[in-house]
Amino acid sequence: MEIIIDKAAKQPIYIQIYEQIRLMIISGELEEGIVLPPERKLAAELGVNRSTILNAYNRLKTDEFIEARVGQGTVVSVKAENRNEIVSPKWNQLFNSRLDDFNNNMIGRLFPLLGKKDIISFALGMASPDLIPELPFESLADLTKAKANREILSQTPVAGNEELRENICTLLAKENINSTPEEIMVLTGSQQGIDIATRILIQPGDVVIVEAPTYFLALESFKAAGAKIIEVPIDNNGMLMDGIEQLFIKYHPKCIYTIPNCQNPSSYSMSLERRKKLLELAYRYDVFILEDDAYAGLDFKEKTLPTLYQMDTNGYVLLLRTFSKTICSGIRLGYMAAHKRMIAQCCYVRQNMDIHPNTISQWLICEYIKGGTYETHMKKIKEEYLKKCNLMHNELLNHAPKGLTWSKPSGGYYFWCRLPKEVRTSELLVLCIRDGVAFMPGIPFFTYECGENFMRLNFTTPTAGQIHKGIPILCANIKKLINTETKENRVSPSNFLPLY
Ligand SMILES: Cc1ncc(COP(=O)(O)O)c(C=O)c1O
Question: Among 18, 256, 334, 445, which is disulfide-ready with 209 (CB 3.0 to 4.6 Å)?
């Protein structure tokens, strides 16, 4: 809720605040039922006396735009006559009612906060800005100075630039993965691949099996398609296989979504035995596998396990890869590798989304790969990420209170931590954000409610200095919550949501 006050204006400050909140309510920006920030908090934020906010709120109450509710605070509640003033579209009736099933409000509210500049963020999973390689932007500019070369900027096929697809096949061949350009589709980030595959495979009511925890935006795509999600727990060898056959028999799933390498959020990798077992079961019960390999090449161990796609001999696996985690996410480029029939179907669906991937990004990545430094770059980022991972591990060892547990990642981007039992992740986040530190709470990584005791910490984006400074702050807040006995002294996420 952004309120701007002009202390030099003739209009009293409480009226300025009253007017702006009233307008936000009338325009629909503040919807019925939203809790306004407590007076003291808003006063501190705007640098005014509490009585100023009290006067503004009193006037809004008198005019019947808000009301005080026991246990909730000050809530937007518009009286019938005032409703006539509300000229905004009827949002709830306008939006597809299925949106309610997958709108993840928590993430929506958190995102602007997590990326704020003055915050040490362990929240988002991005490549380190210091390690983004030099992409050939200047060559592109020089080349397109001549009109004849400007076709570089024109459309590409729906599946992506032919030369880039050939180069991707060459990269894959170095990992002993055989593919042809017809089996590759360049994507606007691998998230798009999850969404396309979901649209192709899932009808409302179809069952998708996922790891628990798992990447939350994949869950959002499945929910948007109306899938029934079944969670299978993981351990440090990946998805547990005991009992999975019973799930296949009972629920006839349409597909399995798995992140076998350096999983998000746990950083665990699936063992070779489990990979074999999963494929064997997929064939037996005719279940398609979506293999999300977003963290490919980021395993700190020298020897990495084969992908399910590589092991598959029957066209049951769709492999998703991205340049977001190895180059930068802003380039928005990834790819899928799958059976030709699958890729052809994906092209039909993709046409309706964005027609084809961004030509400029494709050209830049293609030239970068052709330049031959991608492997050296991968080696370098792995070394740097390993250093940061070690640093975060040591900082946690030095400052963690009793009850905070984690496994040291052997690759990938994240520490997945279990909090002491008396600490709720959402409550901890409120305290940490006040102290300028953010992390990803565990809740969105599960479909059903059980993430309150977990948090995910990213170690690739923050600098060494930020890790050094931020982890002690995070741990101090965990200790504070362990020691806070009475409920009244505790904070609630609604203390800051939906303020931002
Ligand atoms: C497992 C996983 N899949 C897909 C993505 C999406 O990546 P992209 O930027 O390529 O869309 C992410 C991003 O964090 C991820 O962690």
Answer: 256
